[in-house]
Design a protein that fits this description.
Elements (H helix, E strand, L loop, with lengths): L11 H5 L21 E3 L11 E3 L2 E3 L2 E5 L9 H10 L4 E5 L2 H4 L14 H10 L3 E5 L30 H18 L10 E5 L13 H10 L6 E7 L3 H4 L5 E6 L4 H11 L5 E6 L15 H13 L3 E8 L10 E4 L2 E4 L18 H11 L21 E2 L2 E4 L11 E3 L20 E8 L3 E4 L2 E2 L1 E6 L2 E7 L4 E4 L6 E8 L16 E2 L4 E2 L2 E2 L3 E6 L3 H7 L5 E2 L8 E8 L7 E4 L5 E6 L2 E7 L6 E4 L8 E8 L6 E5 L5
Parallel strand pairs: 4-5, 4-11, 5-6, 6-7, 7-8, 8-9, 9-10, 10-11
Antiparallel strand pairs: 1-2, 2-3, 12-13, 14-35, 15-28, 15-29, 16-27, 17-23, 17-27, 18-22, 18-25, 19-24, 20-21, 20-23, 25-26, 29-34, 30-33, 30-35, 31-32, 31-34
């Protein structure tokens, strides 16, 4: 995705300008896809545009985006079946480097990150595949999919041919590309195209960078069609010799045809991201797009002989700490946990009005009936869960790894953990002794709470840096709890997205020294250790960060549900140690999606980490509130 900021629904006056959709496909010819070759044609009869060919026959890409890493693996087949049943012939996915190499040199392509398994299911169902491996992908994920350990060296320049960056890319591609090579069309697989990086025209810091990434793919065995992808206004800066230029658009634009012809002559037109919806930020309204308008624009693309990729067909969920951020009006904003995006399928994989409109539209092009619709995924409304036990954050610190004792605070990325790769996600706690009150000056990214012992004094962020510490007797413990709320995904600020405390701390102008630093990554093994803790009986009087525990009774056959937190303030929810994501009472999102496949029969442990003050219970429903 390209833009940073908010988007709203089209106005009523604009909606009324779109006439009823009527299909007339008399100019289209049936496709024969028996043989195996893919290429570019020279013209499209009656349209004046070039076209893709598959085995020598005209072929148009009707694709939908599904990000495997945002969907529980157990549901991949269901979502891809629904894509096929809607009339699409291709699935497109990003590949997130930060999830596949969470620590430098430590790779993970297992479980929910098994890219090969996802592609093979698509092939089994008769779908083609377009892969967008990055290394930068945007996708509204933390740091646009780049690993946070790239930020350890402030002199390194990401998304350039800087030696440190491209060496890291090369190591990653040395492992990633051999996974992709046998999946290619010319090797008998379903992958028909690869995107070279992502939306580089908006960044455009190094003219040698895109050729480097292209060559890095080619020399490792990529032989399929290569693509670039940019917003129309950035195409001139982002295009690359030897790669097809594609554009990201909300609607048909006549200027697009002239621009693309100027850049690359008479080549097929692919709308790589046809934005049928949009993502949400905490504190902003939920975004929706009129289904009738989306259907009309798609029919225009078809009338003009264009190919397109619907972004998103199924958005899924930013589970855990995956959500990225943006700067809007000089303030850091965070993408919500849901990546529903008002897509054709909901966050939980349910059908929408847009889905049925696209099924009708694409079905009208097909010579054979579309596959039958898969059954909807069943939902359940579980009994409310009461919270009976809690642990203040301060009583859980000894269940973490030993704190680091450092003279001066350091940011998350430069902590000496995870085999030297630092801390990517979560919270970080800084502690030091002070012996007087006064004016505290501290710079945090993104948001912090300042405590004197266990009493909260103030919230701070990158704009609010000063706190008045009241006078007290003796020496006391100063604590600063800082949260990474998501590194920005699409901005020149990406280079400076180090999290935690990023400068020295002063009290009355004197630099504070001698810190204990705790890493609160909130990984599965931390919650395993917490099970041996002595939990307190619940009290309504506790204010401040704490863990709260309850039990969800799911019965013999668990199903999907939506979890809500009435009366809670700012929390993360963990089910059997799995992080469902962030909840924030400022909205717009009011429920968290809980996949039934992550529940055990009968009892399930729920732990809520609440930063401020708990609510009374946890509720469940069979419908989301976004």
């Amino acid at each position: 995705m390209v833009e940073v900021g908010t988007a709203s629904s089209w106005s009523d006056s604009e909606q009324s300008s779109y006439p009823p959709v009527r299909y007339n496909w008399s100019h289209l010819t049936p496709l024969d896809l028996k043989n195996r070759s893919v290429g570019l044609g020279t013209k499209n009869p009656g349209m004046g545009h070039a076209y893709f060919t598959l085995d020598g026959h005209e072929f148009r890409i009707f694709s939908g985006s599904i990000h495997y890493f945002r969907v529980p693996r157990e549901y991949w087949r269901d979502r891809l079946l629904k894509l096929k049943a809607c009339g699409f012939n291709t699935v497109t996915t990003y590949i997130p480097w930060n999830l596949h190499e969470p620590e430098r040199g430590k790779f993970d392509f297992s479980g929910n990150l098994d890219l090969k398994a996802f592609v093979m299911i698509a092939e089994e169902l008769g779908l083609w595949v377009i892969l967008r491996p990055g290394p930068y992908i945007c996708a509204e994920v933390d740091l646009g999919g780049l690993p946070s350990w790239l930020l350890q060296d402030p002199k390194s320049r990401i998304r350039t041919t800087d030696k440190g960056f491209v060496e890291s890319v090369d190591r990653y591609f040395d492992l990633l590309v051999p996974i992709m090579v046998p999946l290619q069309y010319h090797h008998g697989g379903p992958v028909i195209a690869f995107q070279v990086e992502n939306e580089y025209g908006a960044f455009n810091k190094d003219e040698k960078y895109m050729p480097y990434i292209k060559e890095a793919l080619l020399k490792r065995g990529i032989v399929e069609l290569l693509l670039t992808s940019d917003l129309m206004n950035n195409v001139r800066k982002g295009h690359l010799k030897g790669a097809l230029v594609t554009v990201n658009q909300r609607r048909l634009c006549q200027r697009m045809f002239k621009l693309l012809h100027q850049v690359q002559g008479n080549m097929p037109i692919l709308i790589m991201e046809f934005w049928i919806g949009w993502f949400d930020f905490w504190g902003f309204p939920h975004v929706t797009k009129n289904p009738h308008i989306i259907e009309y624009i798609a029919s225009e693309f078809i009338q003009y002989g264009l190919s397109f990729n619907v972004y998103m067909f199924h958005g899924g969920t930013n589970f855990g700490f995956l959500s990225g951020g943006a700067y809007i009006n000089k303030m850091h904003r965070t993408v919500v946990t849901s990546y529903d995006c008002d897509a054709l399928l909901t966050e939980a994989g349910d059908y929408t009005e847009k889905y049925f409109r696209f099924r009708r539209l694409l079905g009208s092009l097909s010579e054979i009936p579309l596959p039958p619709l898969p059954d909807p995924t069943p939902k359940s409304v579980y009994p409310a869960v009461s919270i009976l036990h809690y642990l203040p954050l301060w009583e859980t610190l000894h269940y973490l790894n030993e704190p680091f004792k450092l003279n001066l605070p350091v940011n998350m990325e430069n902590l000496p953990i995870n085999n030297g790769s630092g801390q990517s996600f979560g919270f970080i706690l800084y502690e030091t002794k002070i012996c007087s009150g006064g004016l505290l000056h501290v710079h945090v990214n993104d948001i912090g709470e300042v405590f004197l012992n266990d009493t909260v004094l103030a919230s701070i962020n990158s704009e609010l840096k000063n706190v008045d510490i009241p006078a007290f007797m003796g020496c006391q413990l100063l604590r600063i709890l800082v949260e990474n709320q998501g590194r920005v995904t699409f901005s020149d600020k990406m280079q400076t997205e180090q999290k935690g405390i990023t400068e020295t701390i002063t009290l009355n102008g004197v630099i504070l020294k001698g810190f204990n630093i705790y890493c609160l990554e909130m990984k599965m093994n931390f919650f395993e250790r917490l099970r041996s803790a002595t939990w307190r009986s619940i009290t309504d009087s506790h204010i401040g960060p704490a863990f709260y525990r309850g039990t969800l009774k799911a019965g013999a056959s668990p199903k999907d549900t939506f979890l809500s937190l009435p009366g809670w303030n700012y929390a993360f929810v963990f089910i059997n140690g799995r992080n469902l994501g962030r909840y924030w009472n400022i909205g717009p999102q009011k429920t968290l999606y809980l996949p039934g496949v992550w529940l055990h029969p009968e009892d399930n442990e729920i732990i809520v980490f609440e930063k401020i003050k708990k609510g009374s219970f946890i509720e469940f429903s069979d419908k989301p509130k976004l």
